[in-house]
Each structure stands twice: as C-alpha cells, then as structure tokens.
Amino acid sequence: STLRAEIPVTELLKNDPKNWGRWGADDEVGSLNFLTQAEVLRGVQAVKQGKTFTLQVMMGHPGGDPVWPGRAQPVRVNVMDKGHYLCGKGPVFPGHAEYADDMLIMYLQGSTQYDALGHVWCDDQLYNGYDARTTAGKMTKASVLPIAERGIAGRGILIDIARHRDKQVLDRGETFTHEDLLAAAAKQGVTIEKHDILLIRTGWIGSFYTRDKTEFYQDFIEPGLTYSPELVKWFHEMEIPNLVTDTIANEVTADPVSGVVLPLHNALMRNLGVTFTEIAALDALADDCAADGQWTFLYTAAPLKVAGGTGAPVNPVVIK
Ligand code: UVW
C-alpha cells in the first residue's frame, strides 16, 4: 500500500537540522520565537487597506466538516431552548428572562486548528527532545497551551499554488516543493521573506463541501508539500514560524518516494518547531489577493487555551 513506510522516519530525516535547545531546554513554542516585537510591527506595516478575513472553516457546514480520517466531525448539541420552556422544564428566573444553551463535542483537531508541537513525534522524542511519555493522559510538555498563551502575530504571505497551476484545486496526491512556492511567489509579484508566516492555498478544503465524501477521502492522500532535505533546509534558513494550509495535514499525506507518512510533521514541527495550522479556509482571501494584487498582510491567531491539549481550534484573522 502507498501508506506503508519502507524506512523509519528517523532514518529519512537523519541529516536534517533541528532547533532543539535553540530557545532553551524548557521551550515549548519553537519557531514562534522568531515572531519578535519587530516582526509583529513588520506585520502591521503590511496592512494597507483595512480589509479583514477570517480563516476558520465553518463548524456544522451543511456540506459536512473536513477532518482527518478516524476523527469525528464536531457535534453541536442543543441543551436548552424554547422547547424546554414550552414543556415547563426551563429554569424560571425572577423577571422571566429565558435562555438557550448548547455544547460542542469535537476533536481538538476537528476544525481549523493549531497543532501542539508535541502532537506528532518519532523515536520516542517530541519537539525539543521531550520524552514522548509526557503525552500520556495529557500533554505535560509541548502542548498547545504555551502556543495559545503566547498568541501569534506577524507578516503573513499567501502563496496560491492552485492559481499558479491554473487550477481551481490541486489533484489528489499532487505535490509541490519550496521551488514551486518561489516560482508562484514570483508570478504573484511578491517575495517570501525571512520570518514570514507562510499560507499556502491548494483549493483542497474548499472543494470538500461539494465533493462525494468517499471520493474525497479515497486512500486518504491529499495534495501538498513533499519532503526533501532541501525543503527542510529552506524552512530552516527562512526561519518560517508558522505553516498554514487549506489541507487536513499540511503535507502530501504519504511521501511518494519513501512511503513514510507525515514526514514533514516530524521534519518541520518536531525537529524545527514550526507550528502547523491546518484546515484553513483560504479561498476568499486568495480571490481578494488575486483581485487587488496584495498577497501580504498582518496575520493574527489566538488558538483556544486548552491545558494539556494536543491542538486547539482557531479562527485566524488576516488584515490587509
Ligand atoms: C495528524 O497528523 C494525525 O493529524 P493532523 O493532520 O491534525 O496534524
């Protein structure tokens, strides 16, 4: 099967750089450390028009909610509504105010989300060398909480690979590299700068809502970035703090060459501490950028503060 790795991921990545220890033995936010005050101001300088965009996919979309196979879609449950009052079961307050309540049951990666740096690992070690046993029960190292408490702000840049290839959406398993990102950026008339928050549009998530779901999830292969030592070196040298894509896993799910599944989760997230934002809604932003030619902006995100969480839902806000 295409999902059977022939070599261990650690063997594949053995010569790749790591940022472990770069920000101290206790660091849990990794490459977000690159987003200094000066970088936030560089992001603010990218604001030219005052247009705002939100990047979370809708939860409870009539076309379904895209999730990694095996995870359930978010479920919103009404707990209290007018019906309870009509049945005489609603709480009666002095003055007769009534209210509605509901709750959400979801995987923390079941919508647009930030992954904790310890979300994926290999060789029993998480980002910064933390022992993988610290994930037992709840994450006590490299959970999403330090990322959520820090918040994310900086200059964002959108690279529209689908547009670059004159497509609405990339094909299943279609790959691209950092060289393709650079070529697309050149066509867009922008330059990816050091410390940019990198947003990549493939059209994949936008296509989910109207597609047959069996077809969408077939073999669970997405389009995406592919692993290579050169790509990892580029992310390392560019000091990219945050990778945001409109796919479920931010990379082509299984490396077509080695068969290893999720090598970039290990090469970028675990080894370099690059934070991953997945399942982002980028179509409206991309349409607007294509229309006005402005592909850079202030990107901000505040994932939910989930203690011990392996990830957290988020609704990033972009200001152009
Ligand atoms: C896995 O890597 C399993 O999930 P995600 O795509 O949410 O990071």
Automatic annotation (TrEMBL):
It comes from the Bacteria. Gene3D superfamilies: Putative cyclase (3.50.30.50). SUPFAM superfamilies: Putative cyclase (SSF102198). Transmembrane segments: none annotated. This is Kynurenine formamidase. GO terms for molecular function: arylformamidase activity. GO terms for biological process: L-tryptophan catabolic process to kynurenine. The lineage of its organism: Bacteria, Pseudomonadati, Pseudomonadota, Alphaproteobacteria, Acetobacterales. InterPro entries: KFase/CYL, KFase_sf.
